[in-house]
What does this fold into?
Amino acid sequence: MKDQTNLLRARSEKAHQTASLQSKSEITVCDSREYRFPPIKLSKLKWFTEKDLPPEVIVLDFERLLKNQDLDLLAKTLTGEKILVLKNHPITEQELEDIVNVTRQFFDQKEEDRRKMIHPRLSRLIRGFSGFNSEHMVSIDYDAKRDGIADPILKYSWGPEDNLYPNEKFKQIWDNYFKKCYFISTTLIEKIIDILDLKKDPQWKKMFNGDGTVRLACYPEVENVTSDRFKLHLDMGFITLNNQLPSENGFTCLQVEHDAKLISVPAVKNLLVVNYNEHLGLFTNNRVKPVVHQVISPPREEVKDSERSSVLFFLHPHDDLITKNPKESGLKQCYSEGSQTKFSDFMRRWLDLI
Ligand SMILES: [Fe+2]
It folds into this structure.
């Protein structure tokens, strides 16, 4: 993890400033200072139930996976036959409520105070606070066309070290959440190695000891958004764990591609939606099918009470893992010339692009 952090630290501050200036001049979606972020009680939210999940989703019991049970079912998610959701995992409802509320308390202050938690050296995508219009992730699609719209999202990100935090309680809550996600996602990697017999690959050990990022993303009600919250895309690295909260009005914005259809996956309490990501697909020659997904914006008549938060975790492989370049990618500029790319080189370019 140290190597990864050093690499990310090497990202030039100049590039960071340029990205920030671009986003300010290109568009103003809205000013997040008009929004308030009171604490929420998870028990009061309008959760969906397991019965509301579409048939394309399979809910696996993490405790059973730990005992090497249901691996045949897990295998069905690797091929894309099913969309993976985990229950009975070690993140408690209280831990989710704690991370959401300690972060909402931080968001619920003036922008000038929030900006004190912008990391002086590292990308806002991996550490600290990132305000409205700071990145352009929404506009990354498979054609890599930027439509000039910046993200109408408030984010906070946390890694294994070099974090910024407003107080000790905040640090304790985020550190704990990070460790749990790291355990869950690396356990999944262990099971995938067994199912696909990946120890034959000389690089298999580089599937571990990579970096990870927890990110809380909050999408307030935004009236004039002309874009989806995130267009169809693959996440980077190996695995994403998505602990999503429902919006008050019941609008479900997460959609996963399955058999060329888009399937809405609503927020069910204590369930984690799992995505397999671009580099896991590349490393396994597509034996693990990466999960294409998007986050849509509510239509105008459903904007009211559509605020929604998601606590995400992204697991990355070791910096030195080398994968073949994809035949097609909207992020071609992030891959090295030739036929293969080291993960650290990809990430450095990707963070500069966003
Ligand atoms: Fe995503």
Summary: The first strand starts at residue 57 and ends at 61. Residues 71 and 194 are 9 Å apart (CA to CA). Confidence is low (pLDDT under 50) at residues 1-30, 141-146. The chain is about 30% helix and 20% strand.
